[in-house]
């Protein structure tokens, strides 16, 4: 399994990440200024083909999404991150964990979305591995679950490459249909 090259933490708050750094990527808390780049990614029908309800069509929706992500960060000290290519500084995707409840169990939902120009280059795997490593190190008692549509084979490959296993006990109905679960449960 891939692990982050480096994780910078806030000194006063144990285990709260400032940013995660991998061989090629930097993951950090989103800022409102990131909304336009998030819109560029989530307005692409190919990016949301397995979750069409996530399609964004205007900047106001992207700004609201960033505010939602920041609310989770303010409450819990972690959440969805913006992912940047370290070489170019370009925002190329989002990846992170956030609390959710599945079948009455509170879990960390792992998500990742990337600009199509990065597909096939291992960016999603690299970012998801870094986030999973952080979650397992910082919140070791918590279950991490990636919810993936049955037809999204690329996302399933990312989940299995980082060590998640198919976990049908957490399959659930999502907004766009059934979501298969992949978890780090032993």
UniProtKB/TrEMBL annotation:
<keyword id="KW-0808">Transferase</keyword>
<feature type="domain" description="N-acetyltransferase">
    <location>
        <begin position="25"/>
        <end position="185"/>
    </location>
</feature>
<protein>
    <submittedName>
        <fullName>RimJ/RimL family protein N-acetyltransferase</fullName>
    </submittedName>
</protein>
<dbReference type="InterPro" id="IPR016181">
    <property type="entry name" value="Acyl_CoA_acyltransferase"/>
</dbReference>
<dbReference type="GO" id="GO:0016747">
    <property type="term" value="F:acyltransferase activity, transferring groups other than amino-acyl groups"/>
</dbReference>
<dbReference type="Pfam" id="PF13302">
    <property type="entry name" value="Acetyltransf_3"/>
</dbReference>
<dbReference type="InterPro" id="IPR000182">
    <property type="entry name" value="GNAT_dom"/>
</dbReference>
<dbReference type="InterPro" id="IPR051531">
    <property type="entry name" value="N-acetyltransferase"/>
</dbReference>
């Amino acid at each position: 399994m891939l692990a982050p090259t480096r994780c910078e933490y806030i000194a006063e708050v144990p285990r709260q990440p400032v940013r995660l750094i991998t061989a090629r990527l930097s993951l950090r808390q989103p800022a409102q200024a990131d909304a336009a780049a998030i819109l560029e990614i989530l307005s692409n029908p190919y990016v949301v083909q397995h979750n069409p309800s996530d399609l964004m069509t205007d900047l106001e929706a992207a700004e609201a999404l960033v505010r939602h992500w920041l609310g989770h960060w303010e409450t819990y000290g972690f959440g969805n991150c913006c992912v940047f290519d370290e070489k170019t500084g370009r925002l190329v995707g989002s990846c992170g964990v956030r609390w959710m409840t599945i079948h009455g169990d509170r879990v960390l939902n792992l998500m990742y979305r990337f600009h199509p120009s990065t597909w096939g280059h291992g960016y999603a795997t690299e970012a998801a591995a870094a986030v999973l490593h952080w979650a397992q190190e910082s919140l070791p008692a918590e279950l991490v679950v990636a919810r993936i549509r049955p037809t999204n084979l690329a996302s399933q490959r990312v989940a299995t490459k980082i060590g998640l296993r198919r976990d049908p006990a957490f399959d659930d109905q999502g907004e766009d249909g059934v979501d298969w679960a992949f978890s780090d449960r032993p």
